[in-house]
Fold this sequence. Notes:
The chain is mainly α. It has 11 helices and no strands. The chain has one domain.
Amino acid sequence: MILAALASYVAFSGALTERGVLLLTLVGLWALRLSAHITIRSLGEPEDRRYQEIRANNQPHFWLKSLYIVFGLQAFLAWVIALPAVAAAAAPAPLGWLDLAAVLVWAAGMYFEVVGDWQLMRIQRERTSSDQVLDTGLWRYTRHPNYFGEALLWWGVFLAALAAGAWWAIVSPILMTFLLLRVSGVALLEKDIADRRPAYRDYVARTSAFLPAPPKPQRNGDAVNGV
């Protein structure tokens, strides 16, 4: 996504505009942080069970099918999601209040994503029971603060594109939100988690799936282990 944005600025204007520098900074910080987090989280761990399932369901010749099931599809999605950063390349309009709003929304999204990921990693290291559910910190208000933060920061990037007149780039945050809610995020992760962790059912009943909201009262006054 960083390369897509940078190539667009060079192609459209031959030089980075102020908004171009802003968007490259926002996208770059997001990409570097997420890459570092995934690398650290995955060190010494087996392949994610969701990818193991994809691999098993597409045999034989997964090595060939993965070119379009995994890599081709993700390349296309990355191009679409990067549209706000690409779109702003053609508009050298000066920075304004929408750009400030973009930074604030992006920062709020990064907060939810970074803190949510950190809280999850911490409990995964300290968990004493496989049925233990994370319902403290940001996870008290949403079952997926990291996914919510991911969507929110791309809405922030879109606001910067909107300031440049690229209203049509709204397809990017809409697509990202849809993917996180219905495809690779919430829907995929929660498909069978209640079967593996019975305590998660009560957590679902009390806690918003995506948008942060005050938790509902615990049923029967039962306490749930913190995640």
